[in-house]
Amino acid sequence: MNAVVKVNAHESSGDIVIDVQDLTKRFGTKTVVDHFSMQVRRGQIYGFLGPNGSGKTTTIRMLCGLLTPDEGRGTCLGYDILTESTKIKREVGYMTQKFSLYEDLSIAENLDFVGRMYDVPNRKQLVDSTLERLGLTGRRTQLAGTLSGGWKQRLALAACLLHDPKLLLLDEPTAGVDPGARRDFWDHIHRLADEGMTVLVSTHYMDEAERCHELAYIAYGKLLARGTGAEVIARAGLTTWEITGANLSAVGRSLEGAPGVEMLVPFGTALHVSGTDAAALRASVDKAASPAHAKAREVPTGLEDVFIHLMRGAVDPSAKTEKA
Ligand SMILES: Nc1ncnc2c1ncn2[C@@H]1O[C@H](COP(=O)(O)OP(=O)(O)OP(=O)(O)O)[C@@H](O)[C@H]1O
User: Fold this and answer.
1) Nearest-10 crossing angle of helices 149-161, 107-118
2) 20 to 30 Å CA-CA from 321: which of 117, 212, 263, 297?
3) What Pfam families does the record tag this protein with (predicted)?
4) Residue whose CA is closest, atom 3 of ligand 1?
5) CA 180, CA 138: separation in Å to the nearest integer?
């Protein structure tokens, strides 16, 4: 019931917070973001996925005015990203991959310091309410240096929220954090989105991708897929089989390069085999599994299957140049 209410609230908000077209950034001769366009609505949690070095951080930095695109245009929070970056920065909370906290200051002192930097009015009250908002009140006097990874992450989020931003840009905010702390962090993100906060978050974790309202998958700076998780999976057109049994390595060997087999990935004690030609794939799976007495069953294709598939199909433009 709750989930239905949340989705409706999110869908009914029509205002666009990020609206950029053809963003392009080059470093030297390398194009790291290549004509990337996106629209993000208010209250949306928008996930940014892609392999290392695919241009996620560079895009985030262009959105908040820290980097100037070489091509492209657009608005963030209604401000022009080319000419109004100062205004954008004031209304954005940006959590970088390597956020810094003062380890020898307490949680509350860290927030107070951030409040001074932003020159926020009613600083003391704001620090108190932010501590409360993120469940940090009980730890306010604890030194940041003594916090576990999950609590540090939460403090970093609190620091981003102190100046009351309207948009959160989170660059791999939970990298290296244990699953329980990641889940808590995401519960906070959802609560903030329910209150109207817009969130753009980059991640490599599939469970986090599934918690986003919409996703964009990029590789080599180019958009390869976008939509809700279900849309991204459906558009990939993949069929996936799970094979279990005793002779999996032999089954795997006979599936390599077989008709219809585009991907072969070990998943724990099973093999996942995927492809876009369902009939050819099924025939190959039958042919490989039967002689080995392995069990094969069709399973729903997951986001991870799709992303691996997309990545394998992506062409590295710099590799092409080198060969030419
Ligand atoms: N200031 C810079 N000068 C030169 N090259 C850069 C600069 N910043 C980023 N790059 C390069 O641009 C490419 C994209 O980097 P970016 O950090 O945007 O990727 P990413 O998708 O965020 O990667 P990750 O998942 O590893 O964080 C990489 O090849 C990187 O080395």
Assistant:
1) 30
2) 263
3) ABC_tran
4) 27
5) 19
Domain ranges of the chain: 2-233, 236-323
Nearest residue (CA) to ligand 1, atom 7:
27
Consecutive H or E run containing 190: helix 179-194
- Structural class in CATH, domain 2-233: alpha beta
The DSSP output letter for 65 is T
The dihedral through the CA atoms of 278, 283, 285, 286 has a sign that is positive
- 247 residue type, one letter: N
Q: For residue 286, what pLDDT band results from cuts at 50, 70 and 90?
A: very high
Q: Which two tokens stand for residue 56?
A: 């996620």
- Which tens digit of pLDDT belongs to each residue from 193-244? 999 999 999 999 989 999 999 999 999 999 999 999 999 999 999 999 999 9
Tell which atom from ligand 1 comes closest to the C-alpha of 58.
Answer: 18
Mean pLDDT of 149-164: 92
Ligand 1 centroid, distance to 195 Cα (angstroms): 32
- Is residue 32 within 6 Å of ligand 1 at its C-beta? yes
Q: What letter represents residue 68's amino acid?
A: T
Residue 299's DSSP bridge partners are 240
| Contact by Cβ (8 Å): 149, 76 | no
Type of residue at 153: Q
257 Cα–ligand 1 center, Å: 33
**Cβ pair 78, 88 in contact under 8 A:** no
Alpha-carbon distances of 41 from 145, 172, 247, rounded to whole Å: 37, 21, 49
Mean pLDDT, rounded, for 114-134: 92
**CA distances, 228 to each of 24, 48, 265 (Å):** 24, 12, 24
Q: Is the CATH code 3.30.70.100 the one for domain 236-323?
A: yes
For the Cβ of 55 lying below 6 angstroms from any atom of ligand 1, the answer is yes
